[in-house]
Amino acid sequence: MSALPARTSSLGPSDAYLERFLALHPKEIDLSLGRVGGLLAALGRPQASMPPAIQIAGTNGKGSTTAFLRAMLEAAGKSVHVYTSPHLVRFHERIRLGSPEGGAFVDEDRLAATFEEVDRVNDGRPITLFEITTAAALLLFARNPADVLLLEVGLGGRYDATNVVTNALAGVITPVSLDHQKFLGDTLSAIAHEKAGILKSLVPAVIARQEQESLAAIEREAARVGSPLAISGQDWQAREERGRLVFEDGDGLLDLPLPRLVGRHQIENAGAAIATLRSLPALGVDAAAIEAGLGTVNWPARMQRIASGALHDLLPQGAELWLDGGHNPDGGRAVASTLAELDERSPKPIVLVVGMLNTKDSDGFLEAFAGLAGRVYTVPIGSSTAALPPEEVVEAAERAGLAAEACGSIEEALSKAARAAGPVAPRVLIIGSLYLAGDALAANGTPPA
């Protein structure tokens, strides 16, 4: 939700606007639709002119589900706008403008010009960074034709600045878990209630696998507003069988290849995307496009294998370098399960390079790797003022039963991992925060494209 500082050597005019926007409101997060609604009204209500939108809310898997949707829609020949957050290296990653050729991140000239316009119309009124930049994104989506808009919720749902769409095609709620309790509530029921705020009357919604407490809250809200639900495990299911992805719903069964994204949890994310597109037959996304999308999908920093670059070259020959932005206990368990699967197929010593924010449950996250990781190196996150000192992450790792050592940088951690390597080169995973993932991609020289 906050803007990460640009990590490139050349800063453009848009970066100056981001700094200016930060000063417009005393709080980084202040959930409300009033300020963004007022600004959008002054801009001529661009949300009424955008392509029909699929909204994606949830705690874990939002970005991956959005990536699957984009890949499948584009494989069907659709032009797709995409809005996601946060970005990894530059703000431009949040806004992808669709085209028949597959779309691209918004360019600097268009972004800066749009920031100038929303800044002028806002005229210094208090508004959060996420709200004013979301208004800019919606303005861009309204002015550039596309078939579909994929709109990922920033935080929560009900009062998130993205929840202003007037032409919703469908909603998606990915797995809900405890995260952002300060803003959404401290129970699964309360958090799921806020996520379910995206549900709209007569607009179909796909619900990924949930804890019963979360599902009950979502079902209550759906009944209140009149949103028809397609629920994982009840109305559809996605599973792995003999190295294939099998999707089944009331319309039949699809026998598909496993998704390109690594990890068993990606089966459910892919299933949510498939169920969404199957609920929208007018889009014309057939089984061939779904299969093609599973093979072309790309989503950086989600069990991403780093095969070259400056960080990769610090490790010994035969080592593997992986990157994931997981940062809460459920995310940690999903990644730990994936690491265990990789280790079963190709055993290597597992080393973690971890940086975390002070708003996250470090103990719960690191417990997922107990008995799996042989060594943990903790690092600072230079792109966030909310980063935990590496020494505090060491303490959390040790409470989880993990051997840990504080380092001053990712580079230092990888160099130490290289020096400590035995006869079998390690499998190294950088994890703990999307901010850290962005730092790593920038340092490696491989930003998202």
Keywords:
449 residues; alpha/beta; Protein-Tyrosine Phosphatase, Chain A; eight-stranded mixed β-sheet; six-stranded mixed β-sheet; globular; EC 6.3.2.12; folate biosynthesis; Mur_ligase_cen; metal-binding; EC 6.3.2.17
Task: Describe this entry's structure for a reader.
There is one protein chain. With 449 residues, the protein is α/β, with parallel strands linked by helices. It folds into 2 domains: 13-296, 3-Layer(aba) Sandwich (UDP-N-acetylmuramoyl-L-alanine:D-glutamate ligase), CATH 3.40.1190; 304-444, Protein-Tyrosine Phosphatase, Chain A. The protein contains 15 helices and 17 strands. The strands form 3 sheets. An 8-stranded mixed sheet has the order 4-3-2-5-1-6-7-8, sandwiched between helices. Strand 7, helix 8 (212-225) and strand 8 (229-231) form a beta-alpha-beta unit. Residues 1-9 have low confidence and may be disordered.
Structural shape: globular
The total count of helices amounts to 15
**Relevant CATH superfamily of the largest domain:** Mur-like, catalytic domain
The amount of helix comes to 25-40%
Number of strands: 17
How much beta, percentage-wise? Answer: 15-25%
What is the mean pLDDT? 94
